[in-house]
Specification:
By secondary structure, the chain is of the alpha/beta class. It is 55% helix and 9% strand. The chain has helices spanning 11-23, 40-52, 70-77, 96-106, 128-139, 159-162, 175-186, 190-200, 204-211, 214-229, 235-245, 251-272, 284-293, 296-314, 319-335, and strands spanning 29-33, 57-59, 62-64, 83-85, 116-120, 145-151, 166-169.
């Protein structure tokens, strides 16, 4: 169960919800918008747990769930009867029947808490009919009802629904803050923390996911090792390396991302002559050496090769061949051939 002290980079949202907890001025409907893994679910967890907690506590200047009462124990195990994570029948659509089921349940008073909280993931998937069904509850909600809609943005919602929700928009978390959070909360070494933060795209949840995914770390390490050896590899070795890196399902996108990030670092080294702000911070020596070998024209050709690889991937091309051709072009630019 996540608490407010674990949420970083969202000062406005935190301040708003903290004020609501302290004053008791709780809205009946909140719309939290942000990309998947942005941390919106963590905020929903923290707010719900604190709202239902029997003995909220002050922690680092924030009002938090105590973590020890019955409500907190149930929230931790996912069995708090008055914190309801809604489900829907179809994976890509939240239909009117799903919302009608929730509306029917809303009429039943809380089991043991002051509030009854409904958390709706992927709320942008609600059909117009489902939104109109929800509107009836938003217009005349029971005093105890709190609805948290989690969505990737407000664009798919009817104006009538938006007007009855408090809109809370997630913001990208700065890389430095993500790096510090990973070091502090996850115990990740500084270099790796910076790498994961760089790939997280400002997403707290994605940073945590990457840090906890051993396959991501292994694939990254394998790609970096290949890049170190690339200038001296022959065509046979390149073909073997490409086949190895592309041999696991869904790895091609990650490998291409690693490669683009690596050469983004090389370009920074070449253009600025310094090693600050590199994502592959532990590989600075290799980035400097590559920057010295590759001309600006060469870096432009590598960028064009990435674009071509992306088009080939989109067209369903063979992953190993896509990487092999990309590596051959990169080697050519690094060797001046």
């Amino acid at each position: 169960m996540h608490g407010f002290t674990q949420i970083i980079g969202q000062p406005k949202i935190t301040a708003h919800l903290q004020k609501a907890l302290r004053t008791g001025n709780i809205s009946h409907a909140y719309l939290l918008t942000g990309e998947r893994e942005s941390g919106a679910e963590w905020i929903a967890e923290a707010f719900s747990a604190a709202l239902q907690c029997e003995h909220p506590v002050e922690k680092e200047g924030l009002l938090e769930a105590c973590g020890t009462c019955l409500s907190c124990a149930q929230a931790q195990s996912g069995s708090q009867p008055d914190i309801i994570w809604t489900e829907h029948a179809k994976p890509n659509t939240i239909g009117v029947d799903d919302i009608r089921k929730m509306r029917s349940d809303v009429q039943i008073k809380p089991y043991r808490s002051e509030h009854k909280i409904y958390i709706v993931r992927d709320a942008q998937k609600m059909t117009p009919q489902a939104q109109n069904a929800l509107l009836k509850t938003l217009e005349e909600p029971p005093a105890y009802a709190v609805i948290l809609l989690l969505a990737d943005g407000p664009g798919t919602f009817l104006p009538t629904v938006l007007s009855r929700c408090i809109l809370l928009q997630m913001q990208p978390v700065p890389e430095t803050a993500l790096t510090q959070w990973l070091e502090r909360e996850k115990g990740i070494p500084a270099g790796k923390a910076a790498l994961y933060a760089g790939f997280a795209g400002g997403s707290l949840g994605r940073a945590a996911t990457l840090a906890e995914d051993p396959a991501f770390g292994e694939l990254c390490a394998e790609t970096v090792e290949m890049l170190r050896r690339l200038p001296t590899m022959d065509s046979h070795d390149i073909a073997q390396a490409a086949a190895s890196l592309a041999g696991r399902e869904d790895d091609l996108a990650a490998v291409l991302s690693f490669l683009q990030t690596w050469y983004r670092d090389v370009l920074l080294c070449k253009a600025l002559g310094e090693a600050d702000h590199l994502i592959f911070a532990e590989e600075v020596q290799y980035s400097k050496e590559a920057a010295a070998r590759i001309s600006y024209e060469g870096l432009q050709k590598i960028t064009e090769a990435f674009d071509l690889a992306a088009r080939r991937r989109k067209a369903g091309g063979n992953a190993a061949l896509i990487l092999e051709l990309l590596f051959l072009e990169i080697r050519a630019q690094q060797s001046g051939k």
